[in-house]
Design brief:
With about 220 residues, this protein is mainly alpha-helical.
Length: about 220
Amino acid sequence: MLMNYLYANFLEEETFVTTNNITKEALSALTRACVFPAASYVYTSKGSSVSFVSSFSDDATYRFYLKGHSAWLESVVRLELTTEDHARQYFFSRYDDAKRTFYTSDLGQQLSEFAPDIKTQFDSDHANATWDHFLNGVYGVCTRDGQPETVFKKQALVLYIEQMTTKGSASSAQVKLQLLERAVAALDEVESDFAPHEVSQTSRQRCIIDVRANILAKKPA
């Protein structure tokens, strides 16, 4: 159920502002200033409830923020990131650190050797799109915590897995399958589960569920 998923992984706006000791007006101001992401889900409710005690009609809009975005809000306040330029610089300082760490790791080095051209895709256009998606709440939908490090890992692992499973590229070579399995497991750690109605349209379906079912489940023991 959608609402079960939202309340398990997100905080509705009233709860988010109370938990983070901020007002709705202040949160809205940070969003308008382009230093904090918009709500990842907006749910419009038009329903009713009937019980022995009374009946109730509900016609309201609810905004859900990723729980992990509380950490970003804390950084915005603590570091006084009052302009979009400052917030963006901070975001990419962490994003670029995550990129360097990834490519010095064993998994990152092996994936880079397999598809060296993917590194070139992290250019200025990609950075602009990443920042826009962050502000629009997209990474609150598709990552587990919405943090810059997680955003990079999600992006990179999807690109590598798609490259490894492109038609004509998949191979039964044991070494490659082991690398693919590690990449899928790493993506599973950072990518969200997505709402039930979304899963079939997402990279979770393409790069985790389908890969495990159609390729990894058939690899030699």
